[in-house]
Amino acid sequence: MPTLPASSNALNRLALRMTALAERWLPDAFVFALIGTLLVVIAALFATNFNFIQVINSWQGGIWSLVPFTLQMAMVVIGGTVVATAAPVQRFIERIARIPQSPRQATVLCAVASMVTSWFNWGFGLIFAAVLARALARQVKQVDYRTLAATTLLGLGTVWAQGLSGSAALQMATPGLLPPAIRAIAAGKDAAGAELVKGGIIGLQHTIFLWQSFACVAIEIGLVALLIAAITPVGPHARTAADLGVDLLEPVDEATDTPRHPGEWLEHQAWLSWIVVLLGTAYIGIALYTAEHIAAAITLNLVNLALLTLGFALHRTPARLARAFARATPSVWGLLLQFPLYGGIAALIVDTKLNDRIADLFTRLATPTTFPPLIAAYSALLGIFVPSGGSKWVIEAPYVLAAAHRLHVHLGWTVAVYDLGEALANLVQPFWMLPVLGMLGLKARDVMGVTWTVFLVMAPVVLGLVTVFGATLGWPL
């Protein structure tokens, strides 16, 4: 067991020890996707009437079912990174980094900024907070860099999934993102055979735009800010970036914006980018204006178009935007590698009716009152082992939605509750931390003491909130 740094908080010391154990014994997240595939194949062979050929055909049929969603989620990450690293955003970050006058003010500011920006887009919030953390560390010399770095992850571990890039909510609101079989389960049927939820589409007004969801977000932000203020080490317990050997100087972009050859002239013309900006802005405006409800217009496609349009506007020239995309693209390799496997798992679960059996288990274990906290806890637990973002919902939606119908629980709240649990898992599992840990110059063990502390405090709070607010909603929507 490694020597642990001094800390004034017993929970921090416990979390650091648990992190060291996890880093030593837990395999890469991709291995869990492989293990999940193996377990579902075995279950399909021995717990259903499917033979080996049928299982293979079903699995292969699902492998590419998530291709549109995979690209969309990759664009969420890339688009958020491109916007956060634009020069105007960087200058804005430098200005707000001058506000705090003490280490605690710095960590609280970074935590709140991480959560607020992640509500709008988790990819943008993650990168924005990381850039802000480095700027704050340069301004507030004695701030504990471990805690500051950990606060960049708090948006991803709390409110992101209840916001505009919440994967499950966007999947349910966007036609074409889910297989027809899952839409049919979500639609349900009344005694006369009519659909309870038209087309199985659950708009954002029934998930992230519920007043209950907004209340959860506000409570989480407030409690996490207070918690960070309380646990930020100061004085001799603090370890600065210099103590940890982290260089806070920003790399210089050596690329030139001056054309070297006549053929490069168009690459540096801002008017080409502004054509896309005008087209994108016009479409987004029309879509929001003509929608029956603003929330109904916000889909994953619209969010990504907004990020792309903003990226064109902020980077100005095609050459600058291309460089920003090139720097952002390596962060999505995990999505491209894992999502096809999750598509195959989802197809097997639905085709073999394993979803019905799992739904029966939920129905037996839960009541309408206990179903929301059960789903939140289940989502958090599975998210620790399958940190897959929205692809996990494809696997679980069939039986979660079926159980919600049987127990007469609000379907939109079920999706929101699932998202709440999925976010909590990110405080324990370091998979989604990896894109920013490299930027911050730290290892997972350096920050997970803080994230574990937040998890231990917020988990029971979240379970209580989903139970109380779930009682205020009816079925089906």
Description of the molecule:
With 477 residues, this protein is mainly alpha-helical. 68% of the residues lie in helices and 0% in strands. It has one domain (27-247, 267-470). It has helices at 10-25, 29-47, 52-63, 67-84, 87-96, 103-120, 122-139, 145-151, 154-157, 167-173, 180-187, 211-231, 270-290, 294-297, 300-315, 318-328, 333-351, 354-365, 371-385, 391-407, 411-425, 434-440, 444-470. Helix 5 crosses helix 7 (122-139), helix 7 runs parallel beside helix 22 and helix 19 (371-385) packs parallel to helix 21. The longest helix has 27 residues, at 444-470.
Keywords:
477 residues, mainly alpha, globular, disordered N terminus
Q: Topology of this protein?
A:
Blueprint: H1 10-25, H2 29-47, H3 52-63, H4 67-84, H5 87-96, H6 103-120, H7 122-139, H8 145-151, H9 154-157, H10 167-173, H11 180-187, H12 211-231, H13 270-290, H14 294-297, H15 300-315, H16 318-328, H17 333-351, H18 354-365, H19 371-385, H20 391-407, H21 411-425, H22 434-440, H23 444-470
Helix pairs in contact: 1-23, 2-17, 3-17, 4-7, 4-15, 4-16, 4-17, 5-7, 6-7, 6-8, 6-12, 7-8, 7-22, 8-23, 10-21, 11-20, 12-23, 13-15, 17-20, 18-20, 19-21, 19-23, 20-21, 21-23
